[in-house]
Design brief:
By secondary structure, the chain is mainly beta. The protein contains no helices and eleven strands. Strands 2, 4, 5, 6, 9, 10 and 11 form a seven-stranded mixed beta sheet that branches. The protein starts with a strand and ends with a strand.
């Protein structure tokens, strides 16, 4: 019913940039508003999964550095990450909560290291 596939992670130096992609598919996304409800979370080793970005809202730790955008024609959600810091190292997940059900992608690893 719902498939979320992330890509674009990798190894980057501090101060660098990456753009993550989340390809969304499934019958849910024919529902009005569903595509715009897709958001991003991340989980660092030994820490809980935390919210990163959704439409019109960002975690304070990434505000002014990360930007969420969407390509409706491709059913893809992007996360542009600039000025990356060591503490941004984590596995990044695409997510949608709809009708009380949470759907997650498999995640993509982002490692920031010099």
């Amino acid at each position: 019913q719902v498939q979320l596939v992330e890509s674009g992670g990798g190894l980057v130096q501090p101060g660098g940039s990456l753009r993550l992609s989340c390809a969304a598919s499934g019958s849910l996304f024919s529902t009005r508003g569903a595509f715009h409800a897709v958001d991003w979370y991340r989980q660092a080793p030994g820490k809980e999964r935390e919210f990163v970005a959704r439409r019109y809202e960002y975690a304070p730790s990434v505000n002014d550095r990360f930007t969420i955008s969407r390509d409706n024609a491709k059913n893809t959600v992007y996360l542009q990450m600039n000025t990356l810091k060591l503490e941004d190292t984590a596995r990044y997940y695409c997510h949608i909560a709809w009708d009380g059900v949470h759907y997650w992608g498999q995640g993509t690893q982002v490692t920031v290291a010099s």
